Amino acid sequence: MFQAPSVFTRAPLPPATPESEPRREQTPKATAPASAPASAAAGKRDPYFDNVKYLAIVLVAVAHAWEPVMDGSRATRALYMIVYTFHMPAFILISGYFSRTFDMSAPKVKRLLTGAVVPYILFETAYSLFRRYVDDAPDTPISLTDPLYLTWFLIALFIWRITTPIWLTLRHPLAVALTIAVLASVTPGIGDDLDLQRVLQFLPFFVIGLLMKPEHFRLVRRREVRLLALPLFAGALLFAYWIAPHTQLSWFYRASSAQERGAPWWSGLVLALGLLVCGLILTIGFLALVPGRRTWFTALGAGTICGYLLHGFLIKGAVYTGLFDRHTWLADPVGLVVVTGVTAVAVTLMCSPPVRRALKFATEPDMHWAFRKDPKSPESPKEQRGQQDPENRKALVKH
């Protein structure tokens, strides 16, 4: 699922199952957290969007923790399907919403490079080395063109955001994005580079976010919508429980075409559109249920990029060291509750301010030395004071 790299205002911001054959390892690629939701106008963070990001990253981590132990539980598999239907669309939609002002200006390009590209390079390398030595897989390559596990969202975010001016220029951007997504689902020749299948198949949610306005979120958060969201998820869970034993989970990952899954090409068209509609409906339900007030976990929304990038080491470490194989009771109902609770607590700690500060060098690096100074950008007060001549400074002091 859940992001994810972050669209960052500095907050931002799968073992493949038998049905899905990943390219670099035997797990479905992870999902990631959404981008940062700070209010650009007032410079203040909106607690609602921080709540969205925190709750979404918890769902992402918990769903990843279910993967190694859910095969014996139909209910857990159904819950997994529900989460994977909406948590990435929610992340991507929010990322699109906060990309509306991206205009290729120097400051925003710098922020994109340091907030998405640099973390992608660092964590793609880190996860490759982690698998190589912890999983005893010496042939694991370090490839920046084939994202490993949860790093795919960072490079996808870079591609989506860098194309934002194109989508904002088109007369009918959503229709174009839908066409691209559906065609991608039946085009096996796209290949594995930069996980373009996912980039293209999830693209409509990013474009929807670009087209959204604040009043749309106010509409989603109305009491009537919240009341409808509860039976919506209850019905979705019953339906998922019914179809769970007969459903290929690879459809939810959007990482390959219908032909690569061994299905007829036309099924890609039908299921791609179906998942897009279901993902949007459940995303609306999720956004409606998130509290808009400040809560105990609101401050953790600023650190979801850390929770996203770090929780993979915890889960993959447990898989690589055989923890789930040695303790088979974790697949029992009590074990699933334990796995869920431990994962939720762990990812909460990973989003905490101390962890965010410790990881700032990788997720929010200060790389002013790598960029040219923009002559149009205003100088800092310190620089302005330094350039004033002594006589002017004396005059200022006198007055």
TrEMBL record:
Acyltransferase domain location: 47-347
Transmembrane portions of the chain: 48-66, 78-99, 111-130, 142-160, 225-244, 264-289, 296-314, 334-351
Sorted UniProt keywords: Membrane, Transmembrane, Transmembrane helix
Record-linked Pfam families: Acyl_transf_3 (PF01757)
InterPro entries on file: Acyl_transf_3_dom (IPR002656), Nod_factor_acetyltransferase (IPR052734)
Location of the region described as Disordered in the Swiss-Prot/TrEMBL record: 1-43, 370-399
Gene Ontology terms for molecular function: acyltransferase activity, transferring groups other than amino-acyl groups
Composition-biased stretches (Low complexity): 30-42
Coiled coil: none
Name the record gives this protein: Acyltransferase 3 domain-containing protein
Organism placement in taxonomy: Bacteria, Bacillati, Actinomycetota, Actinomycetes, Kitasatosporales
